[in-house]
Amino acid sequence: MLSNLKPQEPDKILALMGEFKADTRQGKIDLGVGVYKDATGHTPVMRAVKEAEKRIWDSQTTKSYTALAGEADYRDAMTQMVLGDVLDAGRTASLASVGGTGALRQGFELARMANPAMRVFYSDPTWPNHVSILKFMGVEAVPYRYFDNATRGVDFEGMKQDLAHAVKGDVILLHGCCHGLTGANLTLDQWHEVVAILEKTGAIPMVDLAYQGFGDGLEEDAAGTRLIASRLPEVLIAASCSKNFGIYRDRSGILIAITPDSATRDLTQGAMAFLNRQTFSFPPDHGARIVATVLTSPDLATDWRAELEEVRKGMLQLRELLAAELRNLSGSDRFDFVAHHRGMFSRLGASPEQVKRIKDDFGIYLVGDSRLNIAGLNNDTVPILARAIIDAGV
Ligand code: LMR
Fold this sequence. Notes:
394 residues, alpha/beta, Aspartate Aminotransferase, domain 1, Aspartate Aminotransferase, domain 2, 7-stranded mixed β-sheet, two-stranded parallel sheet, 14 helices, 46% helix, binds (2S)-2-hydroxybutanedioic acid
């Protein structure tokens, strides 16, 4: 029977990871997969995370099952981190998930349980796995214009026109901050306009918040999500702890649902727990325990925020450096968008051939659509990348 299986297209980002590993060239540079690296190329365990693990080791007396939706302290602390003062506990349901991807998947499943005919609108381009999951689920996925290749900013007029075609029962997938494929983000004024479109169409937003704290700051990066949550009756939010806590392999995320009233909240909470039970039963708890411990221990929370700020500011510096280097080499300001983008990524707007040249001639790995991971750079590799970009004719 298993011989009937069809070969699957490898995930573009993960395939690139494998290709990089197999490359034997000295001095190769990995700007592919979205993993934070320090100046030495290492992905460190954050200080507060390490300390939280020690405290958990000292105090944990059982490894018995958690709750189906995950432990309440984790869900409460994460919901607070995402929603801040907008949080209305009477209207908020939540579910601990297997990473941010698990939150997205459960969010799509939940929406489909409520409306089997739903369509999901996604930004063009988006994180490739968004579309892949939807295709796998047999859900109709509708692109909306997002990236303007001329300015390397957001094509907001195009986005608005396309979103206006959504109807009640559709889901609009939005990147909450640090757009996961381009680095180009909405301003708060533009978020207001998106809310107005959502109000008019009745479509339900689903916010993918995978990089809170990597753009303009922990609170600032949640501003669009909080605006939506404060204005609309129903919102889904899929948040990840992989990047901002640096616990990629512990697979911690959360699905938050804002509901119109407490009766719908209870219904949603029950459906969410049911979904976990059907998928893997109880969610993993180790990462969630770390996050809950950090967020509820004032000393650890303070240190974690400080380290997250160091990480964020380091990426901003690298952006400035790369933009300056490209200004020098190109004799123009056409690469200044690199300094204006936020988060881990920037989309260069290079052709697939140029991306291939950068890889073949310089051993520098970008995702095929010319997304580069800023956090994969350091002061020494910025000039090498800038030279490669110019020499490849970008
Ligand atoms: C990325 O976009 O590179 C990360 O989110 C890793 C992944 O799973 O694709």
